[in-house]
Amino acid sequence: MKYISVAVDGPAGAGKSSVSKAVAKSLGYTYIDTGAMYRAVALFAINNGIDAKNETEKLVSRLNEVEIDIKYTDEGQQIYLLGCLLYTSPSPRDRQKSRMPSSA
User: Fold this and answer.
1) CB 3.0 to 4.6 Å from 24: which of 29, 34, 82, 92, for a disulfide?
2) How many other CB atoms are found less than 10 A from the CB of residue 78?
3) Burial class (CB in 10 A: 0-12, 13-18, 19+), 17
4) pLDDT of the residue at 63
5) Could you give the percent of the chain with pLDDT greater than 70?
Protein backbone atom coordinates (compact mmCIF):
# COMPACT_ATOMS: atom_id res chain seq x y z
CA MET A 1 0.00 0.00 0.00
CA LYS A 2 1.30 3.44 -0.90
CA TYR A 3 1.11 6.18 1.73
CA ILE A 4 1.15 9.87 0.96
CA SER A 5 2.19 12.41 3.57
CA VAL A 6 1.73 16.13 3.13
CA ALA A 7 2.94 18.70 5.64
CA VAL A 8 1.64 22.26 5.77
CA ASP A 9 3.71 24.84 7.60
CA GLY A 10 3.02 28.43 8.50
CA PRO A 11 2.47 30.84 11.37
CA ALA A 12 -0.18 30.34 14.04
CA GLY A 13 -3.64 31.40 12.95
CA ALA A 14 -2.84 31.27 9.23
CA GLY A 15 -5.49 28.65 8.50
CA LYS A 16 -3.21 25.62 8.07
CA SER A 17 -5.65 23.20 9.68
CA SER A 18 -8.65 24.54 7.79
CA VAL A 19 -6.89 24.28 4.42
CA SER A 20 -5.41 20.86 5.28
CA LYS A 21 -8.78 19.43 6.31
CA ALA A 22 -10.48 20.75 3.17
CA VAL A 23 -7.76 19.43 0.84
CA ALA A 24 -7.69 16.04 2.56
CA LYS A 25 -11.46 15.75 2.33
CA SER A 26 -11.58 16.72 -1.33
CA LEU A 27 -8.82 14.21 -2.22
CA GLY A 28 -10.21 11.44 -0.01
CA TYR A 29 -7.15 11.48 2.26
CA THR A 30 -7.01 11.12 6.01
CA TYR A 31 -6.26 14.35 7.87
CA ILE A 32 -4.16 13.83 10.99
CA ASP A 33 -3.89 16.59 13.56
CA THR A 34 -0.18 16.32 14.32
CA GLY A 35 -0.40 19.16 16.82
CA ALA A 36 -2.73 17.00 18.90
CA MET A 37 -0.29 14.12 18.57
CA TYR A 38 2.55 16.30 19.88
CA ARG A 39 0.33 17.37 22.79
CA ALA A 40 -0.38 13.70 23.54
CA VAL A 41 3.34 12.93 23.75
CA ALA A 42 3.86 16.01 25.94
CA LEU A 43 1.09 14.84 28.27
CA PHE A 44 2.65 11.37 28.40
CA ALA A 45 5.95 12.97 29.44
CA ILE A 46 4.28 15.09 32.13
CA ASN A 47 2.29 12.13 33.47
CA ASN A 48 5.49 10.10 33.70
CA GLY A 49 7.65 12.76 35.33
CA ILE A 50 9.81 13.26 32.25
CA ASP A 51 11.16 16.74 31.55
CA ALA A 52 10.84 16.64 27.76
CA LYS A 53 13.16 19.62 27.31
CA ASN A 54 16.02 18.27 29.42
CA GLU A 55 15.43 14.51 29.29
CA THR A 56 14.89 13.85 25.59
CA GLU A 57 16.79 10.55 25.64
CA LYS A 58 14.60 9.31 28.47
CA LEU A 59 11.46 10.34 26.59
CA VAL A 60 12.65 8.74 23.34
CA SER A 61 13.44 5.50 25.19
CA ARG A 62 9.80 5.35 26.38
CA LEU A 63 8.03 6.30 23.16
CA ASN A 64 7.19 2.64 22.53
CA GLU A 65 4.80 2.96 25.50
CA VAL A 66 2.86 5.82 23.91
CA GLU A 67 -0.37 4.62 22.32
CA ILE A 68 -2.11 7.29 20.27
CA ASP A 69 -5.36 6.38 18.54
CA ILE A 70 -7.22 8.57 16.09
CA LYS A 71 -10.96 8.05 15.70
CA TYR A 72 -13.35 9.86 13.42
CA THR A 73 -16.89 10.80 14.38
CA ASP A 74 -19.53 13.15 12.99
CA GLU A 75 -18.12 15.78 15.36
CA GLY A 76 -14.58 15.49 14.00
CA GLN A 77 -11.33 13.80 14.83
CA GLN A 78 -10.70 12.45 18.32
CA ILE A 79 -7.22 11.80 19.70
CA TYR A 80 -6.83 9.16 22.44
CA LEU A 81 -3.76 8.69 24.61
CA LEU A 82 -3.52 5.24 26.20
CA GLY A 83 -7.25 4.74 25.65
CA CYS A 84 -8.35 8.06 27.20
CA LEU A 85 -9.88 10.81 25.09
CA LEU A 86 -7.38 13.64 25.00
CA TYR A 87 -8.51 15.96 22.26
CA THR A 88 -11.35 16.48 19.82
CA SER A 89 -10.67 18.43 16.65
CA PRO A 90 -12.44 20.72 16.17
CA SER A 91 -12.88 21.23 19.89
CA PRO A 92 -16.33 22.09 21.25
CA ARG A 93 -14.94 25.58 21.94
CA ASP A 94 -13.85 25.91 18.29
CA ARG A 95 -17.30 24.85 17.08
CA GLN A 96 -18.91 27.42 19.39
CA LYS A 97 -16.57 30.18 18.17
CA SER A 98 -17.32 29.34 14.53
CA ARG A 99 -21.02 30.06 15.18
CA MET A 100 -20.31 33.48 16.72
CA PRO A 101 -20.59 36.60 14.58
CA SER A 102 -17.35 38.21 13.51
CA SER A 103 -16.31 41.35 15.35
CA ALA A 104 -14.61 42.74 12.25
Assistant:
1) 29
2) 17
3) middle
4) 94
5) 85
